[in-house]
Amino acid sequence: MSDTQKRSMAAPGVSRSRVKAVNAAEERELYKKREPIYPKLAHGKFRFVKWVVMAVTLAVYYLVPFLRWDRGADAPDQAVLADFAGRRFYFFFIEIWPQEVYYITGLLILAALGLFLVTALFGRVWCGYACPQTVWTDLFIMVERAFEGDRNARIKLDRAPWSFNKAWRKVGKHAVWLLIAAATGGAWILYFHDAYDTLANFFTGQADISAYLFFGVLTFTTYVLAGTMREQVCTYMCPWPRIQAAMTDREALNVTYRLDRGEPRGPHKKGDPWEGRGDCIDCRQCVAVCPMGIDIRDGAQLECIQCALCIDACDDVMRKVDRPTGLIAYETDDNIDRFQAGEKPRYRFVRMRTLVYAVALVAVAAVMLTGLLTRAELELNAARDRNPNYVRLSDGSIRNGYTIKVVNKGNAPRDLELVVDGDPAIDIRVLGAPEEAPMRLSVEADRTRDFIVYLTLPHDAVDVPREDITFRVLDPQTGESAETRSVLVTGLSE
Amino acid sequence: MSDHEENRETDAHSGTETTGHEWDGIKELDTPLPRWWLYTFYACIAIGIVYMVMMPAIPALPGLAGETDHSRGISNNSERVNVALAMADLEASRAPGFERLRGASIDAIEDDPDLLGFVRAAGEAAFGNNCSTCHGSGAQGFIGYPNLNDDVWLWGGSYEDIRTTIRFGIRGEHPDTRFSQMPSFGRDALLTRSQIGDVTDYVLSLSGQDAPADAIARGAEIFTSQCVSCHMADGRGDRTQGAPDLTDQDWLYGGSRDQILATIYRGPYGVMPAWEDRLGDTTIDALAAYVYLLGGGEAAASRPTGQ
User: Fold this and answer.
1) What structural domains and CATH numbers belong to chain B?
2) ipTM for this model
């Protein structure tokens, strides 16, 4: 008797059946299969708003690299450019150096506060309208619809066996998706080098390897995330759905099903009375149009991106059955309670939460604006040599060495005058500069230049352990000046 | 997990099972991962295998994989080779700078901000590697090892002089080395102790320091007979012989009376090796320019030697 045969016998003479309980623990699904979603095309004002936002955001993304902004001969003329090779970030009239990365931090804080404020007021409008994942997914679904038809046609096509009709529609769809994905990756790299040059180099194979790399990565992610992952990105990858619960409250507008009006739901026959029942006729059009494939009537949920397409779908239906629209609407949780209690809705946009966000937003914006407007285009730093701390020359005079760093953030070269305030006996020498008074330093446009400066205090003027001095550079053309304090160490004991 | 298996229940709100764990009434949902997530794990495993095949990854016994102790992979990648290549690239990228430095006058170097920056960087690196042991990392020197920041030069402070000193060294083994020797007046009994004391007082007076007048007068006579051939009658030294100026404020072996006395007694014999064979010409150029630009460099012939 073999082992398998042995095992199939429970006891001598009692055979063992190979059946298992359907809900047995070991049969439980460890991993969840993705349920395909076939969003139906909605019509209405929110769909229109979404089309407009899509057109605007896509236009911004694809066209901004081609905008020009004159900055003179020594700087690139691309309006928005993250020039990593040249270590500069250009945004229209703003130019940021690496050490000024706090402006970027400020921008991120502004973006975060803006997101908080908007979410506290109107719920996840970012998710529903402006998030790239939403915009590109919407675009990809549009393409899908063009090739495969609307919801029912797509379901039918997916269930149908392979045929020429199915094949060309699928191939066409994926080809256009790939094209859009490539254009997305292609536009991304235009933000990092001159757009026209990059475009020309890209197609002649002369662009930087990193350009092709980023093009490839972004093409891949766009195709996968917007084409095949879609709602999975929002549900599983994105942290925002987890955070948003803390950003909204019971007085924030959210896409909400009006429980008070809708229930009890059920099919409605023409001529039947509407008394004693809800307005919801359970047509599930709200579910059919939902790009996340959820039912808004189940209440607020993690997956809902609040794109309001269910509002459009429901309003359509309400008009057909001659009931007032707004069964699904932007409403607050508190108002739903009030409706159920028979009270009038109340909207309070000015709340402690929104006030704090708004004040913080204005404060950060004001600080950033002040910083940008008062940004010095001429800066000076001095680092004194500490090894050796000082040098005694043959005649007993004391020399200190300094490396001074002149930062010219302007777009024109500068001829600067260098003055050292302090003991008038101090002699100044700049390595590589002719001896004259005042000393002249030349700094190219948009550059930092180091100068080696030697200050010598004559023997008879050495009287204190350290002399306080101030380096000053002056641009005679513009009148701008910058200064920095330092000391001259003489070696006398304190 | 099995301990809590019987406590599993289906959550009414989400329709998902709980894990069966419970902490103070808080239960944990057993939400299944999306299946594509599983596929990313598989993809990672596949990438791992590809990586192991392509790159050095598998340890091997010494000798089995050539000079390394691991497999080389299909790509035959070696970080040591990569470093060597990167170093070669680095050298190549510096070559144009050294090319411009070759034959450039010190004035040309000073007038060209880019070349100046290059020389200071290249010189500083070479100095740190080769010279700082004796002269200090800031070239500040020590007793017996000259400070290179100041304006005191035993053998001349022009770009050309400094380069010659670096190339051939001082009192070294190179045939062209700079050479001179101060006698050990005390140790070799050329002078008595009291005579050395008198000369010390005279030398102190040369740089304006106080000393007994009678000792100075006696010391002056001895100085005239013993020292002027190198240090010159006025005590200002002779650069052709590396004889220091005794009238200035700088003392290579210390400026106190005891230190000067000790110097005369034993006679210093400072040695600097020749660098010609160890460093390339261009590195010596960069070093010489770096030392020159530390602040004490002299224009050629600004102070004639042997004055």
Assistant:
1) 132-292 (1.10.760.10)
2) 0.80
